[in-house]
Design goal:
Helix content: 10-25%
Distance between the termini: 17 Å
Number of domains: 1
Largest sheet: 4 strands, antiparallel
Strand content: 15-25%
């Protein structure tokens, strides 16, 4: 797992060449908001209907408000495709470790 601030994510997006709308920048207090990024549990994450199953390579959640749930990063992984990246940072998170 890695934790980045909104400022660090903004800088990363700019580094990646993503054009950012200057009129939609966060307010001054939000730049230091920590956002966690981790590997998706093998079973997937819960959706709005509290069903488990959507799987992504990585997921993100607000460090300060994990009860708000997670956001899948990138396209949803279909079928039996392996979740690559799960072992990159030590023990992968389990469903119980993540906010639902």
């Amino acid at each position: 797992m890695i934790t980045l601030t909104v400022q660090e994510i903004y800088d990363l997006a700019a580094f990646a060449g993503i054009g950012l709308d200057e009129s939609r920048k966060p307010d001054d207090d939000s730049w230091e908001t920590p956002i966690c990024i981790g590997s998706c549990p093998g079973l997937g994450v819960r959706d709005e209907d509290d069903e488990i199953g959507k799987r992504y390579r990585f997921i993100a959640w607000l460090e300060e408000y994990p009860e708000e749930g997670v956001m899948g990063l990138g396209p949803e992984i279909e079928g039996d495709a392996e979740l690559s990246g799960r072992a990159e940072s030590g023990a992968p998170p389990t469903q119980a470790d993540l906010p639902l």
